[in-house]
Predict the structure.
Amino acid sequence: MSDVRARSLLVVAAHPDDETLGCGGLIARTAREGGRVSILVLTEGSTAQYPDRPDLVEAKEQQARQAATHLGAESVEFARLPDMALSRLSPSHLNEPVEAAVGNVKPELVAVHHHGDLNRDHTLANEAARVASRPGTGVRSLITYETLSSSAWGQGSFRPDLYFSLDSRDLEAKIEAFRIYETEVREFPHPRSPEAIRHLAATRGAEAGFHLAEAYQSVWHRV
């Protein structure tokens, strides 16, 4: 399946910057084509990696807002759950913000991390999105995205079956939005580098017969 379009998209991300690395091109394209895009970031994304930098919690949220605006998203919400500690929460505690977002946004399409990612927060975000998008919620499609430096190194194989073609505007918007997350940008050949993002878009595009694309793996699609 390739080059479908979404009129209403909810992106669920475990940490600030995941939404841009995984779905930045799709967010930009959907907004450019007149669709509505909302983002939910589950954790504060900094205290585990930078325990001596409490100031980064607010800084990361501000960066996420700036990135969302740059990509054209209508809204970005923060659940402010503990970074790298979602496994300590009860399922109901974790599911609650995702279910609330689905209820408020009423998305046609939900995108979340792949279930086999190396990062445990990613896999738990996937489980919460599955619960929140179950039949009766109005969600028509649930898809999973790849996160550079996590999906390729995980236990489960990311096998894309859905490709969204991008044009150069979408890709450049994604790269510039990622640059906003100053503490997360690395130099090539690290996967979290602008060059790696550009190379992946070209590779995924070639797989589907496009110049540029983002790849996703479907969980379900309801006609």
